[in-house]
Write a sequence for this structure.
């Protein structure tokens, strides 16, 4: 894959109109977009269908977690929307149900290990006995055994996760920040080049592009950095 196949721009904007303007601005330079809660609940699901029909790839970041039947039913309908990637929390039962529901669809299911906004104290507060690194590796192994298409984790864990999941599964890393960029609410971040070198297959970049004065120039700079690292 070239850099254009690996960069996923996060459409973390409040309205479909803003998302439409951003996609138009980025044009053919960007192929892949992430749509999460904010946009999904503002008409973003229909927008996701539209840009998928126009040839863009869509990563639907819903982080599903529910009883098996509910997860399976949701995955079946999302697959029919033409989405390329879908997240769910990396709980073994949920992952197994999702994998069964997605069979034959081409939808890449991604297990969310530990959110990049969480550190060890956050996990302790939530009742987990593991530190972030240990929990990420445990969930990565469970995702591999469940037959998932890939993993979402911090780029800091990419090298270790790649060793667990092997060369074929997707390894998607948010929390990507060019050198000198504001970390925002992310606690475990890495530059685009370092993330690629660590084993990430896809990078999710939102604020450094979406909030840039010139989004296209920002995207091109990140693509160039990724290309140099490939």
């Amino acid at each position: 894959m070239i850099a254009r196949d690996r960069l996923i721009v996060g459409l973390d904007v409040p309205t479909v109109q803003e998302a439409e303007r951003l996609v138009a601005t980025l044009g053919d330079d960007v192929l892949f977009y992430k749509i999460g809660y904010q946009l999904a609940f503002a008409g973003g699901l229909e927008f996701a269908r539209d840009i998928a029909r126009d040839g863009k790839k869509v990563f639907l970041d819903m982080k599903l977690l529910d009883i098996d039947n509910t997860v399976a039913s949701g995955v079946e309908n999302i697959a029919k929307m033409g989405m390329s990637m879908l997240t769910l929390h990396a709980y073994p039962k949920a992952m197994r149900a999702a994998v069964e529901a997605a069979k034959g669809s081409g939808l890449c299911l991604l297990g969310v290990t530990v959110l990049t906004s969480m550190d060890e104290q956050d996990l302790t507060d939530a009742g987990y006995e593991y530190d972030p690194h240990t929990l990420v590796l445990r969930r990565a192994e469970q995702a591999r055994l469940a037959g998932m298409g890939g993993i979402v984790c911090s780029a800091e864990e990419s090298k270790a996760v790649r060793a667990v999941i092997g060369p074929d599964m997707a390894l998607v890393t948010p929390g990507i920040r060019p050198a000198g960029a504001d970390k925002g609410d992310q606690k475990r971040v890495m530059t685009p080049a370092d993330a690629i070198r660590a084993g990430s297959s896809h990078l999710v970049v939102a604020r450094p592009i979406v909030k840039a004065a010139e989004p296209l120039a920002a995207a091109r700079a990140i693509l160039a950095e990724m290309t140099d690292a490939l």
In short: The beta strands are 7-10, 32-35, 57-64, 85-89, 108-112, 150-152, 170-173, 202-205. The CA atoms of residues 5 and 31 lie 7 Å apart.
